[in-house]
Every structure is written in structure tokens, then in C-alpha cells.
Design goal:
With 134 residues, the chain is mainly β. The protein is built from no helices and twelve strands.
Length: 134
């Protein structure tokens, strides 16, 4: 499974910026069990766009259905390139700020399972940590 949903991004100061134009997310199903929300969502990132800088209050598991997702951490370094058929996990917490980018020419389509504390948002906006990209 591969993730990268959230949606936010920022500039070096401390402003969160939303996902790029055309980035969409559609909830497929959701349930709550044992104080956790389990939300299955399909996220589409058009070519040249990104999720924006963000983090999650719970763990995400994702699967790349189509395209190639380029994933970056708050050190502005790539922490993975995930092609169709690949999975990834995003750990929880504000110390795991990241961004998913589509540097390719076709849509990135992700199936994402969010495992969140009950009532938590899908993602939390974060400022750009000083990277020269968004």
C-alpha cells in the first residue's frame, strides 16, 4: 500500500500551502473500531502537482495504482520513489512532515488507508521546511 494524501505545503516562513491544483481525494469507505478511524481513500495527483507539506496523526498505508509518486521528507531529501504496484507507509506525528509529488507525465493514483485516532483530520498542514520546491 502507498500513501500520500494529506494536502498542504508552505513557504520557508511558516505558512501552510494547500495541495496543487487538481489534487483530489475521494473517500471509498470508513469505519471506527477501538477508538481508531479506518478510512480508505483514493487520491489523484496530476502531473506537476503535489500533496503539499503535511503530516498525519496516525499511520498511513498506501498503494500506487498508477503513475510514480516522488516522496520527500523535511530535510528536502527524497525518501522514496514509488511506481505503480508499489506500497509505502507514512508514520504518524509532526516529526514526520513530508510531501508527495508527481514529477511524471501521467496522473498518480493512490489507494490510501488512514489509521487515525477517532475524529482526527486526514492530515495536518505544515509549512515548507525550507525546500526550494513545493
Amino acid at each position: 500500500m502507498a500513501a500520500a494524501a494529506g494536502l498542504s505545503l508552505g513557504a520557508g516562513t511558516a505558512f501552510a500551502t494547500p495541495a496543487g491544483p487538481g489534487v483530489t481525494g475521494k473517500i471509498i469507505s470508513q469505519t471506527t473500531f477501538g477508538g481508531k478511524d479506518y478510512i480508505l481513500r483514493q487520491v489523484t495527483i496530476p502531473p506537476g502537482q503535489s500533496t503539499g507539506w503535511h503530516y498525519h496523526d496516525g499511520t498511513l498505508y498506501g498503494f500506487v495504482q498508477q503513475g510514480t509518486l516522488s516522496h520527500f521528507d523535511s530535510d528536502c531529501e527524497s525518501d522514496g520513489v514509488y511506481k505503480a504496484g508499489s506500497g509505502l507507509t507514512e508514520p504518524s506525528g509532526a516529526d514526520h512532515v513530508h510531501i508527495g509529488r508527481n514529477l511524471g507525465t501521467t496522473d498518480v493514483v493512490l489507494d490510501v488507508l488512514y489509521v487515525l485516532p477517532h475524529g482526527a483530520p486526514l492530515s495536518e498542514d505544515a509549512p515548507n521546511p525550507g525546500c526550494d520546491f513545493q
